[in-house]
């Protein structure tokens, strides 16, 4: 009920924004190749669904594959870092360098070495990897000192401490990283698609935008853009719900989803 | 005098940061006693417990008798220090799980200690659903489940309101009588120290040292007016005086 009431202002504001946009386009007679009205964008979304939905499928698949690989890789490497601190000291700088180099600058290079499909997947993976690795590494070291002492008192093995203490304690951090990584994987996939073009017959949303731009099909550009935005929101909401569910017992100790 | 279960002789502790937490001190803990360590904050009470548990090494001197097998020491911290992701039963059986006690036996012993602290109906509850006092009971149950020879308690009731604390004090004395464990109990409340102890050790700060010792005759517990009896209040007065003197004396 409270959540519902909190959702009212942003929904009203968004509807107001759409209505104003529609009104301005109509009263000022702005041609659709300059700025399409939201109603036209909606109609295009329906009319072009045979082109746009498969493209959405391609982009979404790559995003989720990249995110899954980043989650697996990030968590595994974070665990290695937590077990052997010298590994962290040795290899974290590599991860940082990858992170601070804009993906859009790496993409052309990857396209030389890999097929377009692999390059796009790698880009989605690379951008999502670091926040998951960094947050999980932080989380694995976050267990309370008294709890760690308790494990020592009872003669816990390294692996018991990892499995029963460090990994559960890392969950809130891991999920914070996963939420960031989910958004970034989409950005990585889109950025790479823009560079790569079609990926061996599979065409993603980003390339549909470029293509529609060449043809001055502005309404379709907006429609594709709307789909990308919706996808980003859906990924974030799904990950936030997953995190909320996994941490439902933590109560005050779990960081709230922003 | 029965034999010492653990004894500090000439033990001092300087932390790597350079803080001199404990001046060389001697302290012997006898089997079966409930010793309370009383002193202002920062006088090294927690350090003494950590040295006895083997969580810290002395900078000089020796901690004799402190070669504990896993589970021989129970430790209760000021905060309940529970795992928020695990329910009460899982928290309480943690020591058994770490020692690879078979699941059946672990469950039975977990039920036993939960009944002992009056939390049997809450085995499936999560820490976030419990009050501060109940969380502390869970923490005590966890410390007892491995049947420790020595129970170390570091200001366990400091964050609990006075009425709850009185109740927990009485529960602790009952548990002590039932389980016959040796207990070292750290507090900065004179009244709590006297109420629980068979012996009160008064500490002073900067640097941490033992300033006085008061043996407590527990017969006031049998008086009908326990906490308000003259014998109890008189003892509290004596311990307060020792504490005040310790604070004034500069070594
Ligand atoms: N891990 C530590 N590193 C550095 N100094 C510490 C550490 N633990 C405690 N101290 C210092 O040692 C002194 C005694 O601390 P402590 O044993 O916690 O006292 P108490 O429990 O009586 O409050 C304090 O001055 C404290 O700041
Ligand atoms: Mg302390």
Descriptors:
heterodimer, A: 258 residues, mainly alpha, 81% helix, disordered C terminus, B: 251 residues, Rossmann fold, 2 domains, 3-stranded antiparallel beta sheet, 36% helix, 24% strand, globular, binds adenosine-5'-diphosphate, binds magnesium ion
Radius of gyration of chain B, whole Å:
18 Å
* CATH-defined fold name of the largest domain in chain B: Rossmann fold
Largest sheet of chain B: 6 strands, mixed
Tell me the greatest interface.
Answer: A-B, 23 and 27 residues
Q: What is the subunit arrangement here?
A: heterodimer
Helix content of chain A: over 70%
Q: Tell me, rounded to a whole number, the average pLDDT of chain A.
A: 91
β-sheet strand percentage of chain A: under 5%
**What would you give as the CATH superfamily of chain A?**
MetI-like
CATH classification class of the largest domain in chain B = Alpha Beta
Give the structural class of chain B.
alpha/beta
Cα(first) to Cα(last) distance of chain A is 19 Å
CATH topology of chain A: MetI-like fold
Structural class of chain A: mainly alpha
Total of helices of chain A: 10
Largest sheet, spatial ordering of strands of chain B:
5-6-7-3-8-9
**How many individual helices of chain B?**
8
Low-confidence stretches of chain B: none
Shape of chain A: flat
State the fourth-level CATH superfamily of the largest domain in chain B.
P-loop containing nucleotide triphosphate hydrolases
Largest sheet of chain A: none
């Amino acid at each position: 009920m409270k959540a519902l009431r909190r959702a009212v202002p942003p929904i009203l504001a968004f509807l107001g924004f759409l209505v104003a946009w529609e009104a301005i386009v109509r009263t000022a007679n702005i041609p659709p190749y300059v700025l399409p009205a939201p109603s036209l964008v909606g109609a295009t979304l329906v009319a072009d669904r045979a082109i746009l939905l498969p493209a959405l499928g391609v982009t979404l698949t790559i995003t989720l594959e990249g995110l899954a690989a980043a989650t697996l890789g990030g968590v595994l490497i974070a665990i290695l870092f937590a077990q052997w601190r010298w590994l962290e000291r040795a290899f974290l700088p590599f991860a940082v360098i990858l992170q601070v180099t804009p993906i859009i600058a790496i993409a052309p290079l990857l396209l030389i070495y890999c097929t377009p499909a692999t390059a796009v997947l790698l880009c989605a993976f690379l951008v999502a990897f670091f926040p998951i690795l960094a947050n999980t590494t932080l989380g694995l070291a976050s267990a309370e000192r008294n709890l760690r002492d308790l494990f020592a008192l009872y003669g816990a093995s390294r692996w018991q401490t990892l499995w029963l203490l460090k990994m559960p304690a890392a969950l809130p951090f891991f999920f914070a990283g996963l939420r960031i990584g989910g958004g970034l994987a989409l950005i990585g996939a889109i950025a790479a698609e823009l560079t790569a073009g079609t990926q061996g017959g599979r065409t993603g949303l980003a390339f549909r935008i470029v293509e529609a731009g060449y043809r001055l099909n502005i309404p379709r550009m907006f429609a594709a853009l709307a789909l990308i935005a919706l996808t980003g929101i859906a990924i974030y909401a799904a990950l936030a719900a997953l995190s909320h569910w996994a941490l439902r017992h933590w109560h005050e100790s779990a960081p709230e989803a922003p | 005098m029965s034999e010492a279960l653990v004894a500090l002789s000439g033990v001092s502790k300087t932390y790597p940061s350079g803080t001199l937490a404990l001046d060389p001190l001697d302290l012997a803990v006898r089997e079966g006693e409930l010793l309370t360590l009383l002193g202002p904050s920062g006088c090294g009470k927690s350090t003494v417990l950590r040295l006895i548990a083997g969580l810290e090494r002395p900078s000089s001197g020796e901690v004799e008798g402190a070669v504990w097998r896993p589970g021989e020491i129970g430790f209760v911290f000021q905060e309940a220090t529970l795992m928020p992701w695990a329910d009460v039963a899982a928290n309480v059986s943690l020591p058994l799980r770490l020692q690879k006690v078979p699941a059946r036996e672990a469950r039975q012993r977990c039920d036993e200690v939960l009944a002992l602290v009056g939390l049997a109906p809450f085995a499936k509850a999560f820490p976030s659903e419990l009050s501060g006092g109940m969380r502390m009971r869970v923490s005590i149950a966890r410390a007892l489940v491995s049947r420790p020879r020595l129970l170390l308690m570091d200001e366990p009731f400091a964050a609990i309101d006075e009425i709850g604390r009185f109740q927990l004090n009485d529960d602790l004395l009952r548990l002590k009588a039932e389980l016959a464990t040796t207990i070292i109990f750290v507090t900065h409340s004179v009244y709590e120290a006297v109420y629980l102890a068979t012996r009160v050790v008064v500490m002073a700060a900067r640097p941490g040292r033992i300033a006085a010792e008061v043996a407590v005759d527990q017969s006031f517990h049998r008086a009908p007016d326990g906490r308000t009896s003259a014998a109890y209040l008189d003892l509290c007065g004596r311990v307060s005086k020792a504490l005040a003197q310790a604070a004034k004396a500069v070594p």
